[in-house]
Amino acid sequence: MNDPLVYLSIDGHAEMLSLSEARIPVLDRGFIFGDGVYEVVPVYGRLPFRLDHHLKRLERSLAAIRIENPFDTTGWKHRIAQLIASFPADDQFVYMQITRGVAKRGHAFPKDTVPTVFMMTSPLVLPTDEMRTQGVAVVSAQDNRWLRCDIKSTSLLGNVLMAQYAAEQGVTETILFRDGFLTEGSSTNVWVVKDGVLLAPPRDNRMLEGIRYAFLLELAAAHGLKVECRPIAETEVRQADELLLSSATKEVLPITRLDGQLVGQGAGAGKPGPVYEKLYAWYQQAKREAR
Ligand code: PDD
Q1: What is the largest CA-CA distance in the chain?
Q2: Tens digit of pLDDT for each residue in 54-82?
Q3: For this structure, is 278 an active site residue?
Q4: Which of 117, 106, 95, 85 shows the shortest CA–CA distance to 39?
Q5: Looking at ligand 1, which atom is closest to the CA of residue 210?
């Protein structure tokens, strides 16, 4: 577990080796330019959850930056299964990264490079009971990232700075506003509940469409929860009945404090709300049914 096996393919030479032995050439364009894309897939009971959705998003990210997909779906599934089998924990998260490969430094695409593929797996540490029952605190900031946030790129400097901003204030996440509208968190999607309706920002180039974005919408539709995907003004976020966040490793979590203010009104203020409780229960049920 301390030194798990990883998958590494450089210049088309693939091997499984221990994490401590894995090496990337310094001219890899992932290192030099952040020229690559990635995925984070949760694994429950040794089964990857919504893997087909993750592989489709990976395909979209690769196509957006014009890297040819190194494997077909079966090829990916086979390698992911090998990695999961090599790891002791039942619940894991698999990290996959593809870069444009190793080449002499120059911004434009080099000719004839072979994409570098790296995959590792780690224990999946889910949010604590306290985070779920008390909710988490977040701060807000202006979204100053580029306008292709729909690509799951390894160029994450904007996200890293926002995550650090949250860490320095002792909170879980920074949620972002662009031109007065909610986009997402530094590594999460953000949801608003008002009058029993679940609101989500529209999927476009200003946010990453999380795999849990479509998943929570599916859960809502299956259980008759009203949903609106539309631009959400900052004032609506600050007057929300509930705020939620979602990601592969956080699942779905209630936000109970925003910029030091309690979320919600009246007796429910600062407490996880009923829509969160339902979504969390449906999420856990779907996990059990997927086994
Ligand atoms: N982050 N938005 C951003 C910017 C993200 O980085 C993530 C995920 C999400 C949620 O997507 P999903 O539901 O597919 O996890 C939204 C992953 C977990 C990460 O970078 O570690």
Answers
A1: 63
A2: 999 999 999 999 999 999 999 999 999 99
A3: no
A4: 95
A5: 11
